[in-house]
Design brief:
The complex is a heterodimer of chains A (313) and B (251). Chain A is an all-alpha fold. Chain A has 14 helices and 2 strands; from the N terminus they run ααααααβααααβαααα. Chain B contains 9 helices and 10 strands. Chain B has a 6-stranded mixed beta sheet with strand order 6-7-8-3-9-10, with helices on both faces. A 4-stranded antiparallel beta sheet of chain B has the order 2-1-4-5, covered by helices on one side. Classes of the chains: A mainly alpha (313), B alpha/beta (251).
């Protein structure tokens, strides 16, 4: 095999998944809903990090693939009455194909132009969802999504989400630590040199984009069923910005950083909205802190604290 | 037999002709130095040969086939590798991963999504690091190595592609005389044991005349001489534009 996840990380993962599996025992709708939503955002943020942390490009339009996964799954399930076992994989493939199409153009460019083009394509997806009323429901959203009976219910749906997100995360981890993932890091670190070791760097960046888009599609497909609807907001740039902040907050140089960032930002927003009307202000402060003092996010902070403690002894 | 040939190679940067009508050939198995004052176009010449820059005019042929306009990653695969004057490694990866990734690329495994990166080519990675004398630094972050060691790592990355021809752009730039001697001895030894053809630029004239089989001289982007060390040393034009100046600098 040869996959060696550090022992501490593996144990932490098992503990977290096991703990999550017991959440329905608490018999709190609130807790189940929060956990389901966090799981979706965790996968969404982890997928974005394949582009940001591993290939070294910034995407301002990652919500596009989340929305495509969501719309495709919802429409196939409801309008065309496909079974989930077909609609779900089809939605993921469509997200991946859309990502391949966008990446084909974006990877001709670098840095800021790359980022702006991802944003432009995402807004295009948003505009299509908005205008193509007969298929997507336009600004009313696509509502009344059919859910298979087996997972129709808060608790079964939570377990469905937990299983899909856990498997997806494991697969994503493998991809990021594969020969492909390692080469991707080399492309991030030094794209010129990567070309001179025989790597077609553009194709690698397209590959990263497709992987990221597909997994965002999985997250979107789950979210559409959870909400029993898909809305144009899911493709809007603010959604792309939110997942970007989640990724940066957690730390892009660590595989699990974005997962921590997703959970943290989600909970902060939840609590801030319960007690104040100033979430945008709080968000602004978080952004400032990331940019000014936490360039490697919470994971980087934890590392620094640990090093200081070790140094103090 | 010429393994590498350029015909009328020209690079025009919007009016500034950095390389002008250079026709050059590199013979199989030789150690060939390219010298010339700063700004003579040595690095541009390397960039044109290796696909980093596209020529404005002219041809580059490797082992008899045209590689003009090919992207670097394809040229490398044909067996033409290079190192860089300014250090060009993967700074935040470990020394081990730097070489391992180069080997993954060489073996076309960089699109293997489901084979663990850390398990690939471990033995060969270790051998290469031993060869360049970095076997005790394998776990260190490449960007934190000393300058000299980063240069060695850079050399090992280039060797990982199993090239038949290696282009070294100022392999000893920034090194002390002691380090220079060691680095050159190492390159020389590796070239011999692997049967490499070497094309290199170098500022230290004692090194150039010490190990080169042939020497070419670039001046203002033009090839003004190419031949055996003695021929070049005695070439009137070379003496006029370059060597006099170079000897002073070396002394």
């Amino acid at each position: 095999m040869g996959w060696n996840m550090p022992r501490g990380v593996l144990i932490s993962c098992i503990v977290v998944v096991a703990a999550l599996a017991f959440i329905p025992m608490a018999d709190s709708r609130y807790l189940i809903d929060i956990s389901t939503e966090i799981l979706v955002y965790v996968l969404f943020a982890l997928s974005l990090n394949v582009i940001i942390g591993y290939s070294g490009n910034v995407s301002f339009g990652h919500a596009a693939y989340f929305a495509i996964g969501g719309y495709a799954n919802a429409i196939l399930l409801t309008t065309y009455e496909w079974p989930l076992i077909l609609s779900f994989p089809t939605a993921v493939v469509l997200s991946g194909l859309a990502a391949a199409f966008v990446a084909y153009f974006c990877t001709r460019l670098t840095d800021i132009y790359f980022a702006m083009l991802t944003l432009a394509f995402a807004m295009l997806v948003w505009a299509i969802a908005f205008k193509w009323r007969s298929v997507t429901g336009g600004d009313d959203g696509f509502v009344g999504v059919t859910i298979p009976e087996l997972i129709d219910g808060r608790v079964p749906f939570f377990y469905f989400t937990l299983i899909i997100v856990t498997i997806s995360t494991a697969v994503l981890w493998m991809i990021c630590h594969s020969a492909f993932g390692q080469t991707l890091v080399a492309v991030r670190e030094n794209i010129t040199r990567a070309g001179f070791i025989g790597v077609n760097t553009r194709l690698m960046r397209i590959g990263a984009f497709v992987v990221a888009g597909s997994f965002a599609g999985i997250a979107g497909a789950i979210f559409a069923m959870y909400n029993r609807g898909v809305y144009t907001e899911s493709a809007f740039w603010t959604e792309s910005a939110q997942v970007l902040i989640m990724t940066l907050l957690g730390g892009m140089y660590s595989f699990f950083g974005p997962a921590i960032g997703a959970a943290t930002l989600y909970l902060l927003e939840r609590f801030a909205n319960e007690y104040t009307q100033y979430w945008p202000t709080v968000l602004g402060v978080i952004l400032l802190v990331i940019v000014l003092v936490l360039p490697e996010g919470l994971v980087g902070l934890a590392k620094r604290v640990r090093e200081r403690l070790a140094g103090g002894n | 037999m010429a393994v590498l040939e350029t015909k009328g190679l020209t690079k025009d940067f919007g009016g500034f002709v950095a390389i002008n009508d250079v026709s050059f050939s590199l013979e199989k198995g030789e150690k060939h130095a390219i010298i010339g004052p700063n700004g003579a176009g040595k690095t541009t010449f390397f960039n044109l040969i290796t696909g980093h820059l596209e020529p404005s005019r002219g041809e580059v042929a490797f082992e008899g086939r045209s590689i003009t306009g090919m992207p670097p990653h394809q040229i490398v695969r044909l067996g033409l590798a290079r190192s860089f004057q300014r250090i060009n490694i993967f700074p935040r990866m470990t020394v081990f991963e730097n070489i391992q990734t180069a080997l993954i690329a060489r073996d076309h495994k960089h699109f293997s999504l489901f084979s663990p990166g850390a398990a690939q080519n471990r033995g060969e990675t270790r051998e290469l690091l031993e060869l360049v004398g970095l076997d005790t630094e394998t776990a260190e972050i490449a960007g934190e190595l000393s300058y000299g060691k980063q240069k060695q790592l850079e050399l090992a990355i280039s060797l990982a592609e199993n090239p038949s021809v290696l282009l070294l752009d100022e392999p000893t730039a920034g090194m002390s005389p002691q380090e220079t001697r060691e680095a050159i001895a190492l390159v020389d030894e590796i070239a011999k044991s692997r049967g490499l053809t070497l094309l290199f630029t170098e500022h230290d004239m004692s090194v150039v005349f010490g190990i080169s089989d042939r020497i070419s001289v670039l001046h203002h982007g033009e090839l003004i001489a190419s031949g055996l060390p003695d021929e070049v040393r005695n070439n009137v034009e070379v003496r006029r534009v370059y060597l006099g100046e170079g000897d002073d600098a070396a002394a």
